[in-house]
Write a structure and sequence with these properties.
Helix content: over 70%
Number of helices: 6
Number of domains: 1
Strand content: under 5%
Largest sheet: none
């Protein structure tokens, strides 16, 4: 059997890993074995945190909407607000509602008043 010289292939593989880990600190960017381990760890973390980011932003939007709905003007809870939104078929997602709550509170008040008024109107029709 002929001898196989793996220098080029191995060097190319290690160079690719080293380029990925070039911003890591200390031995994590220099030594091949630790670089490989840190690369695996970084990829696991990035995969896990992609889902976590969605979760965190949803929590942030809910907190912002809840804070505005509980202010002096509305006396409302978040869960009632969302429930009535769906009941009135005003389909606004939480991201947009949070942006409206931060940037334009008057418009947010208009939306909540519309929900409350429609609720009163339906109660009068039932009676």
């Amino acid at each position: 059997m002929t001898r196989v010289k793996r220098g080029y292939t191995a060097r190319r593989r290690r160079k690719k890993i080293r380029l990925f880990a070039s911003t890591f600190i200390g031995a994590h960017s220099r030594l091949t074995r630790t670089t490989t381990q840190q690369r695996m760890r970084a990829l696991v973390s990035s995969h896990r945190d992609r889902s976590r980011k969605k979760r965190d932003f949803r929590r942030l939007w809910i907190t912002r909407i809840n804070a505005v709905t509980r202010e002096d003007r509305l006396f409302y809870s978040y869960s009632l607000f969302i429930h009535n939104l769906y009941k009135r078929q005003l389909l606004l997602n939480r991201k947009i509602l949070a942006q409206i709550a931060l940037s334009n509170k008057n418009f947010f008040d208009i939306i909540s008043n519309k929900i409350i008024n429609q609720k009163e109107n339906t109660n009068q029709i039932k009676e």
